[in-house]
């Protein structure tokens, strides 16, 4: 019988790493600034880092506290690739773009590691690789095909793991094989975003919490950025709100929509059990459309995440029950281990499943659409936007592809329940 215990409905990461009390926050607004950034997650802070180092005056606004959104709530996994399958990218955009996008996803992990090292951010970063796991036997054939294609077309080597060899990778008999990649890593995401915030303040960047931006209006050669703390002139504006993008800049809302991702963690596991379930402390995700992703945390908890359905407002206790069933199916040994926390965060997804850098008609910059790869890709795109504005780079493939929208979506993602049923059907028939 499953033990009774109460589950905290708050993010484990921010409890493990409480908000830094010594983070220097700004209060008074200057009259003008070179760049105003909306959103204090990985995208906004990394753009601010580049711009601040280059000597630009920068402000960062957030509706909540620093890193409040997905940047402190994600699974803490940095893996290569984008939300869109690289084979589809190759077919849609051609060989050159496919190479650039794949290379960017690899470089993103290196850049993340570089930033953590340079800024001396203590965030439990480590590289242990990841394993993609075949949920069904037919899925393993597709993983083999994918691994061979990536090796041949992109020159990136991954290891195919037949079912009989999986015991060296994971303590579960459920899967039908896997594909491993050694370059992936794990992190404590809240420590990372708080460390970034501290780093940018040392570059002179001004951070404003609990300061919603109410409007951005072009006025001659500058933008009037109106906030609840007053109005400031900015030569450039960057919107870095991903899954939390609202109607503040109306042109952006149809370009990205939010999807909910949900996570639970267990209490810390005995070391022997940790080694049994995850011998190499890998990052894991399975091959379902409604995928599960999981890993051991730095203190030995099993973190288990999934989509459940695509809703952003699923009850957290209901979500925890669904995720527990999935967890216990894979690891029956954990059925008596208490779940301590359950929480959620919003992913930003585009209709073409690609991240994008772009500009509105008025010239407002934006970067978003990470689709669950935000730890590394948001770090990369934030850095990329910063370098484009400083002139360190003169182009990016992420700004050169068209940004697809759909006529049926403007403000409310009413299609999410239908998409959920569709993906559930695909998982059933695949």
What fraction of residues sit in β-strands? Answer: 15-25%
Topology order in helix (H) and strand (E) letters: HEHEEHHEEHEEEHEEEEEHEEEHEEEHHH
Strand runs, count? 19
Sheet with most strands: 8 strands, mixed
Number of helices: 11
CATH superfamily: FAD/NAD(P)-binding domain
Unreliable stretches (pLDDT < 50, length at least 5) are none
Query: How many domains would you count in the coordinates?
Result: 1
CATH hierarchy class name: Alpha Beta
> What would you call the shape?
globular
CATH architecture, by name, is: 3-Layer(bba) Sandwich
The N- to C-terminal Cα distance equals 33 Å
Summarize this structure briefly.
The protein is of the alpha+beta class and about 425 residues long. The chain has helices spanning about 10-15, 40-55, 85-95, 95-120, 135-155, 190-200, 270-275, 315-330, 375-390, 395-400, 415-430, and strands at about 30-40, 60, 75-80, 125, 130-135, 160, 175-180, 185, 205-210, 215-220, 220-225, 230-240, 255-265, 285, 290-295, 300-305, 340-350, 355-360, 365-370.
Which SSEs are present, and which pair or pack?
Blueprint: H1 12-16, E1 32-38, H2 42-53, E2 58-61, E3 77-78, H3 86-93, H4 95-118, E4 126-127, E5 130-133, H5 137-154, E6 159-162, E7 177-181, E8 185-186, H6 189-201, E9 206-208, E10 213-219, E11 222-227, E12 230-239, E13 257-266, H7 271-277, E14 283-286, E15 292-296, E16 302-306, H8 316-330, E17 339-349, E18 356-359, E19 365-368, H9 374-390, H10 397-400, H11 416-429
Parallel strand pairs: 1-2, 1-12, 2-9, 5-14, 12-19
Antiparallel strand pairs: 3-8, 4-8, 5-7, 6-7, 10-11, 11-12, 13-16, 13-17, 14-15, 15-16, 18-19
Helix pairs in contact: 2-6, 2-9, 3-4, 4-9
